[in-house]
Design goal:
Layout: H1 2-22, H2 57-60, H3 64-76, H4 78-99, E1 104-115, E2 127-141, H5 146-212, H6 218-252, H7 282-285, H8 287-308, E3 313-324, E4 336-345, H9 353-420, H10 426-460
Antiparallel strand pairs: 1-2, 2-3, 3-4
Helix pairs in contact: 3-5, 4-5, 5-6, 5-8, 5-10, 6-10, 8-9, 9-10
Length: about 475
């Protein structure tokens, strides 16, 4: 009776001691850190919480051909497929971290034949056969929160891989749109060059007629021919770029190189009402910023794990089974055995390994925190750059239209003067025509710059979500 009473006291004492130990907060709780400020977007002080990042890409890009390309990319792109598999890997580790709270359970069956020395067998037997069936279990008590912190780190890693997948998706949507509008601009440039080439051929014919009438000399004829050839030389380069851009789009959708169905740049209407929201929304919509914060949380929990290494591990182990030297008595009461043991392992001297691990974990935590802040600053910079790029592209458009109108008149005037004025030569015509061609190509670039800035802004705010 006294022995039973003493055992109860010991159990209660151990339980109370474990409760006290578990109440010692060795690990720390993670609290989200606010690294945002209202001036993250340069020259933008609005409080509008609406943001284009909340618009699904199916509604943001309304071109049916572009939508088809994006859909193919999201279902077939190899980088996105690899990102999904990384999620599966992280999910497997997270499931494993949850099971770490349960005890291990192992079993073994063995038959051991031994030859005994004379002293071992007392001169009576010279060999023995032992039959064993053992089931063993080990359970580590998570007194200091090591397993809990490991589980949190695994969860943060899973969430990080999911954020990384969304970052790949956002990047992919933006890249497909970027190359699509680059392709439209190249089509437009090729159209302008081919139209200009036809005009240059007419110029050559006109110069030959004027030379026959002794209005211009042979120099004007060869200059007009050279002007024609300069356009002919530019056309193959644009055609090459068109093929290369189509090849890039085919690569993004994980298909062999092929012709891309598309519209004309002039048919594309640029959205006018845009809002980037407030800086704090970057954490909600920017997957790369989310991934950076989650990387910091992983490092935070790994630092917690490193702290627990300074405290003792408490394990409960037990085993049971059958062991016998006689096979016929293997599964009998005589062969049955069982034991249970509680153990405590306290590190005393391990060559400074625990201190080194803690210092390393704390340093990695600081690195992750600085990288998180860096990702926020980069996000703000990208939004600011995209906003200003859109503004400047729009500013150029009205001036470019006036420039083209003036240069068109200049070409017409110089051609007329060439016929009737001795002070005008073909060099004036050549210069005005080249200036007009440059302005027309510049108009195409201005147009596509607006689209590129818009795509860049959509990505910078974290856009690319699906319906």
């Amino acid at each position: 009776m006294n022995k039973t009473y003493d055992m109860k006291k010991i159990i209660l004492l151990i339980s109370f001691s474990l409760f006290l130990l578990s109440s010692c907060h060795i690990t720390k709780e993670y609290n989200q850190i606010n690294v945002y400020n209202d001036s993250l977007y340069r020259d933008s002080f609005g409080n509008d919480t609406n943001t284009i990042a909340n618009i699904p890409w199916q509604e943001f890009f309304i071109d049916e051909n572009l939508q088809a390309l994006i859909q193919k990319a999201l279902s077939q792109n190899l980088d996105l497929k690899m990102a999904i598999e990384r999620i599966n890997v992280a999910n497997a580790y997270f499931k494993q971290s949850k099971l770490a709270f349960l005890p291990d359970l192992n079993s073994s069956v063995s038959i051991r034949q031994s030859k005994l020395a004379f002293p071992q067998g007392f001169g009576l037997i010279n060999s023995s056969t032992q039959y064993d069936l053992i089931i063993s279990s080990s359970w580590e008590l998570d007194i200091w929160g090591k397993l809990k912190s490991s589980k949190k780190a695994a969860l943060a890693n899973l969430l990080k891989t999911e954020a990384a997948k969304r970052a790949v998706q956002s990047q992919l949507v933006s890249e497909v749109a970027f190359y699509y509008y680059q392709l439209l601009s190249l089509d437009n440039q090729l159209e302008i060059l081919e139209k200009t080439l036809e005009n240059r051929k007419l110029d050559v014919s006109a110069m030959k007629d004027l030379k026959a009438s002794n209005i211009v000399n042979g120099a004007a004829v060869v200059q007009s021919e050279a002007n024609q050839y300069s356009v002919e030389v530019a056309i193959p380069d644009v055609k090459r770029l068109i093929k290369e851009t189509e090849n890039m789009l085919s690569f993004l959708i994980a298909s062999p190189s092929e012709t891309v169905n598309r519209k004309s740049l002039g048919d594309e209407a640029i959205p006018q009402e845009l809002s980037v929201g407030i800086p704090a929304q970057l954490l909600k919509y920017r997957p790369d910023v989310q991934a950076a914060e989650l990387e910091f949380r992983i490092a935070f929990e790994q630092t917690n794990v490193a702290r627990t290494a300074f405290y003792p591990n408490i394990n409960i182990t037990g085993s049971a089974g059958f062991s016998s030297l006689d096979f016929s008595k293997w599964f009998t009461a005589d062969g049955l055995f069982a034991n249970i043991m509680g153990g405590l392992t306290q590190p005393i001297f391990n060559k400074g390994m625990n201190k080194a691990n803690l210092s390393s974990a704390e340093a990695n935590q600081e690195i992750a925190f600085h990288n998180f802040k860096k990702s926020v600053l980069i996000a703000g910079q990208e939004v600011s750059n995209a906003l200003y790029a859109m503004e400047t592209a729009k500013e150029k458009e009205s001036s470019r239209i006036k420039q083209i109108e003036s240069l068109t008149k200049a070409v017409d005037f110089t051609k007329e003067l060439l016929k009737y004025s001795e002070t005008t030569n073909y060099t004036d015509v050549l210069t005005s025509e080249q200036n007009l061609l440059n302005a027309e190509l510049g108009m195409v670039n201005d147009r596509v710059e607006q689209w590129i800035a818009l795509i860049y802004l959509y990505k910078a705010t974290g856009g690319g979500v699906e319906k």
